[in-house]
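$ fold --in a.seq
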Amino acid sequence: MKHDFTFVGKDLAESEKIYKPSMTYLEDALRRFKQNKLAMFFFWSLLVMFLFAIIGPYLNKYGYREMNTDMTFRFWDAESLKAGYYFGTDNFGRDFFTRIWAGARVSFTIALIVVFIEGVVGTLYGGIAGFFGGKIDFYMMRFVEIMMSVPSMIYIILLMVVLGPGLKTIIIAMGATRWMFMAMIVRSEVLRIKEQEFVMASIALGANPMWIITKHLIPNALGQIIVRLTLDIPQAIFSEAFLSFIGIGIPVPLASWGSLANEGYQLLQRGPHLFVIPALLISFTTLAFNIVGDALRDALDPKLRK
């Protein structure tokens, strides 16, 4: 029993000494996130992948469109490795290592911009609906429910058909549909937070509603917003990959993981690595973001604070 307690002395000042340093909510959340070894592994893995997406295309002497017809469908044979084709070559003799990381740059760019649009639009829309309530909330959320009654991929495909394939079109189409899920989450958080005393005091003092939303409500819902955005990044990457896989995604000569997987699938018998490598990277990235998102959700949950 004596090992379960620590004597701090008889002196009053000594007994009131704080032996555990105080931490803010975010500091404690960061501490708990770091304790999750699996999440930290995937977090650092994602950072490495982001780094390679930036510098990867410059690590080799071959451009992502540069062709060598004498070195087609090569993968890890002595000649291709000696020539610097670390991930082999495709049907045109293009360096697949360079194309993979050039594709990662496009896929990550689409996902991050789409998630940024989703975060800004969805947070403001849900915050306004939840704060004002009444008829404003009723009509705003009925509009969201009507839009969500049709699968978002149908809207995306229709916009792609109307606007034509392209990087900007994919970003516009995905950003115009994905914010609705964020709006529902933010609204539910705002409805819970706005009944608390500090928000009621600001309302009683006549504070501007947009000031209350941006200074009180949204910051206190930030945990759920961050978790949702983290989990939506792999969904955006997978959606782009699906669009490219069915032929209405990134047009040539641009490359993304989805377009590379689509090209590799058509050449699966002659060059299986052309499909396997981008498919594995998409799967790994999706898994990594999901695990990091789950760890963030646990770390930001005040109920689990110790």
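$ fold --in b.seq
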Amino acid sequence: MTTLLGLDVTGRPVLVAGGGAVAARRATSMAADGAVVTVVAPQLCEDLVDAVLDGALTWVDREVCEGDVEGMWLVHAATDDARANARLCDWATARRTWSVCASEVGEGTARTPATARHAGLVVGVASTDGPDPARARAVRDQLALTLETGDLDLRRHRPVSASGGGNRVGRVVLVGGGPGAADLITVRGRQALAEADVVVTDRLGPTSLLRSLRKDVEVIDVGKVPGAHATTQDEINAVLVEQAQRGRVVVRLKGGDPFLFGRGGEEQSELAAHGIPVEVVPGVSSALAGPAAAGIPVTHRGTVGAVHVAHGHGTLNRAAVQCVVDSSATLVVLMGVSLLGQHVAQLLAAGASPATPVAVVEDATLPSQRVTRAALCDVVEAARESGVRAPAVVVVGDVAVAGLLAAPP
């Protein structure tokens, strides 16, 4: 029967016999964990040569002998000679020293588990009833995937700040949640949610992920719904500061990317002014994902080679108008549904072609996604007839024409 232990090898003498790839993995892993590693072999592979030159381990240029085991805390037998490996393990056993045999897992007195590392954790998998490395690796890989995708609660007990007074160290993670679909958030974004004590969320982005949070994770909704009371940015900043100062890991979950019309820069500046650590996790912006989900490439060879992204609050700036007038770039307008009529009038008055294709993509990447297409001169009426509602992305330019990517006849 095998038991699994976490061994502190810091400063411990470890012998690795062998100079090939397997020995290199064992030796460099032990050295990275703080062991004092001696490699005994007449020849070394390139990785071991590099490790020796870097001073990570010591090399003895000869075949391993019984005397090499003296004083060692752990022995790895990783030569290309199975009999030599077994003999080395016997020498170690006679001296009551743990040994691992690379050529025959049944030899020796210890086995290395299949391991995965994540956020200060080491997960190890070892079979209990005899060697089964393939199954151990399969389980290890699944556990690693679960850790990486944020499907586990990864919160940790944080130490009291050294400044005293009972204050704990808090931090804020500004997470771009992507355009809406839960599976379009980044892996790091999912990990941040798994580490959170409190989530400050908008109405946009992958809000369905909130249902998978642990019940004791506090969710604070500061979403701004059109026509309803809006939480001001100053109020949101105050919430982030107050929660972090309580020693909590705070995730500010936003739709899209936090630094593209997400006011993430303002939040980071406010937090920095209070000495609060901030991590920014980029997200997939609906400025690109919305058109893509509707089959619209914002750039397309032979059609247009640039894209201009604008917000829909107020009058379009000169650059946004000009790129439509001269067809030099695709115009993508975020948060532009309520002022669609004003923007269309502004573009037409500036000389944009009334026939310019326009697509309005609602609920991009969600099952409720809908696309309304029309010429610039007709899009306001088409949107009214279709009942277009926010959130939606407005795409203006030749790439918005229906059938652009259809196979040629």
